[in-house]
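Researcher: Please predict.
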Amino acid sequence: MNLVETKGILLFTRDHKEKDKLVKIFTESAGKQMFYVKGAHRKNNPLTPALLSYTEATYIGNIRSEGLSFLNNAKDIHSFRKIQGDIFLAGYATYLLNLADSAIDDRVYDPNLYHFLHEALQLMDADNDAEIIANIFEIQLLQRFGVSPIWAHCAVCGQTEGRFDYSSKYNGVICEKHWALDDHRYHGDPRAIHFIRLFAQISYEQIASIKLKPETKQAIRQVIDLLYDEYVGLHLKSKKFIDQMGQWQDILKPKDQR
C-alpha cells in the first residue's frame, strides 16, 4: 500500500486498548475514514498535536477500501484554538462535526461538504455568530439527507415576496394567501421563515451582515428542529448539549457581560 497525503478534519477519537486510538477523520480526498493509531498515548508521540479535537491537518497514512486505515504522520497542523478554549463554541463545533459524520456514508468522496465544514469551523474560530453558522449548516445540509424543500418561492403559486410558513404537505414554503390549504403547516414565526429561506441559499461570506435578536434565533431554532424531527430523525448528544447551553450560558458569563 502506498502512503497517501490528504487534508483532513478530525471528527472524533476513541481510545483503543491501553495505548492506541481509533481516529475518525473527514478527509478531503477520500471521504470519512477510520484510522488506527498505534501508541497514540505514548509520551512525545509526534502525532499528538494532530489528534486534538477541532484540528485540521494534512494526514499521511495508508487508506484502505475496507476495514481500518492506518495513520503514520501529519503536517501543516492547524488547531481551531478559539473553539478549543470556549465550551460554547466547542458545543456548536461538535454538533457540526456530528452532523457531517451522519450526513454521508464512510469513504464517500464529498469535497464540497468538506469545504463547507471547514468554512463553518473557520468562521466560528474567528468569533462569528456560532448559532447562525450552525443554522446555515443545518439548512443547507438537508439535501445530504435526501431532503430538498422548496424555499425560493411559494410551493403553490410561485410567489417570492411576503409572509411565508412551512408546509410538509407541499414540501416547502407557502405564502400567506395559501395558509388555509394546510391546517398542519408549521405555524412558524414569519421572521424565522424569512431567515431560513435566506440561510438556504446564502454563502458564508455574507454572514457578517446578519444580526438577529435572541427571540428570532429561538424561533428559527424551533422551525429547524421541526424540520429535522420530521425529515431526518437524528438524535445527537451534541444537539441536546447545545439545547441545554442556553439554560446555563448566562451563569458562566463574566458579570459585566450578563
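Model: The domain at 4-79 is CATH 2.40.50.140 (OB fold (Dihydrolipoamide Acetyltransferase, E2P)).
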